[in-house]
Amino acid sequence: MLNIDEIRNQFPSLSLKDNNGNQIIYLDGPGGTQVPNMVIEGISNYYKKCNANTHGEFNTSKETDILMDSLREKASIFLGAENKKCISLGHNMTTLNFSLARGLSKLFKKGDEVIITDLDHEANRGPWKTLIEKGIKIIKINILENGVLDYDDFKNKINDNTVMIAMGMSSNAIGTVNDFTKIKKIIENKDILFLLDAVHYAPHFPIDVKKIGCDILLCSAYKFYGPHIGVLYCKLNLLDKLETDRLIVQDQKAPYRIETGTLNHAACHGVEKAIDFIASLGSGNSYRDKINEAYRKLGKHENKLASYLYNSLSSIKNIEVIGPDFSNLRSPTVSFVHKNKSANEICKLLGKKNICAWDGHFYAIKAIQKLGLEEHGGVTRLGVSVYNNKEEIENTIKVISQI
After folding, report:
1. Cα–Cα nearest to 387, from 161, 187, 224, 151
2. Which residues contact 301 (CB under 8 A, 6 or more apart)?
3. pLDDT tens digits, 325-340
4. In a 3-state reduction of DSSP, which class is residue 164?
5. Distance CA 230, CA 4 (A)
6. Cut 0.85: pTM above it
7. Does 72 score more than 90 pLDDT?
8. Which of 75, 104, 280, 354 is spaced 20 to 30 A from 126 at the CA atom?
9. Which domains does the chain have, with CATH numbers?
10. CB–CB of 166/104 below 8 Å?
């Protein structure tokens, strides 16, 4: 079991209080988690001890090279990648995905089809819709009323013209975990690229890209206790085939081929420390074993709190909880609508009680529209992270029940 009190002590922001001495309840994790001391200290120590650009012949530059290399190595273990050459870094997931779309547009031809879903964040829809101007068709997968993808629609739309499927692993808006393994089995022996958006999945579940069999996977470190850095996995030798936007002076080989300009080295070191933080929650003989064990523990903790939140809110008059229940695999994100108040009004009321929650569509606007929730101003979203405890959830339920 996790020692939640011990974990909470590692997050300085959790000790913040309002002017009346009341603590803040952070249930805004799906929009970005709080950051532990080891990440903050890692970023600070980088600036104190080795702040320099890469590939120089002096110590601080050489130290930066070592740190960047170490991040790629740990990120490759974190994602189950073949090696560190598969790990590229960027300002955020969206920027990396736009770069991928431009690169892949030169490989795809007119009449090819790229499949996206209506459940996804726009960061995994918008970049691919730019391919329409190249004559590439964008095929969209419907979602059902319970917030789950229509897998029959998927089967019917995959054909000989399909060149890529871009789908999310979990919905950042309503918590649905998609059955990406089912889709991989359908395309097992087909020449179709398989891209996964793991931004909302990576904070809650372990990832093994080799086991999944995806060609490309993207995630964002600020969703799993780190700074704002996007992380890209490309299957070995795939990135070298893409004509990415890059300078002629840039290293032309993977993983650097898609990276533009000087990276934020301090933040990158913070990403390594975020992965170290997750690994510190587990145990085992190897770094990968520690990560897997950490996810088993934090997943159990988060699921217990989120399912309690889901069931409690479902029993409150005037509240409708959106998305599938916790009888199947689901992320610890609980979204709801109030019969008489907009999502923004609810968040304002929660904010007055020091409860951090989000309202709106969270850039998954198509899903919110398809579920008929736009007229409510979207949904109110609460997300459970590893540092949340039962007292916070109980207090939140009490406040919502009094609205």
Report:
1. 224
2. 1, 2, 4, 386
3. 999 999 999 999 999 9
4. strand
5. 28
6. yes
7. yes
8. 75
9. 4-37+288-401 (3.90.1150.10), 41-280 (3.40.640.10)
10. no
